[in-house]
Known about the structure:
Blueprint lengths: L6 H5 L7 E4 L9 H10 L4 E4 L13 H5 L3 E6 L6 H8 L4 E4 L2 H13 L4 E3 L13 E4 L2 E6 L4 E12 L4 E2 L8 H5 L2 E12 L18 E4 L3 H14 L5
Parallel strand pairs: 1-2, 1-8, 2-3, 3-4, 8-10, 10-11
Antiparallel strand pairs: 5-7, 6-7, 8-9
Amino acid sequence: MxxxxxxxxxxxxxxxxxTIMIGGFLGVGAPLKCIEKLVERQVxxxxxxxxxxxxxxxxxxxxxxxxxxxxxxxxxxxxxxxPEALEIYKSGELEVEFYxxxxxxxxxxxxGAGLGGVLTPIGVGTLVEEGKQKLTINGKEYLLExxxxxxxxxxxxxxxxxxxxxxxxxxxxxxxxxLAMAADYTVAEVNEIVEVGDIEPERVxxxxxxxxxxxxxxxxxEHQEIFKDLxxxxxxxx
Length: 238
């Protein structure tokens, strides 16, 4: 099955009110073209699931989604890096659901694996435990954290073949492989699309069975230029 699709065709499936997972960490390993298309299409009332909200200082990565007020709920582990998100949060236009970073990823892993939840001692005795079931196992208290899934997951890989097998490069392996498993429709944006067999089996980070569509993102050289310009513009590289 050839899973390579035009990004515009994929985006036709995304609807107002959708729950969307987006991979990456502070813009690194993020599906930049997919995010740009979400902004362009102006889909709204989104529930967005991402480990943090944007590159520090905003203006990049997920920031335009918050600036356009397309997100009504944000499920995350950290939201202090994006002025655009903080602005709509302070005005009461954004609901934020926080989890410790490890809990956040384990909830998604449980969603992808078909588990009924995960048990964690993190948050016991704090505000985190409000409304959650507590269990005592071998004399120790745990919170039951329920699985987290989405309608769509947009992930970023280095290469993918036409069957949807994805190879990652560097730190793009951060949240992308876990998110890929926990959505009804997973889209892999990659720098390069190759033929089946060009990716060595041991280099496959996400098997094609989890991927519904492969879309062409920026080339690797373009990707490097985008971040070089960003880092120079924000004073992180001279």
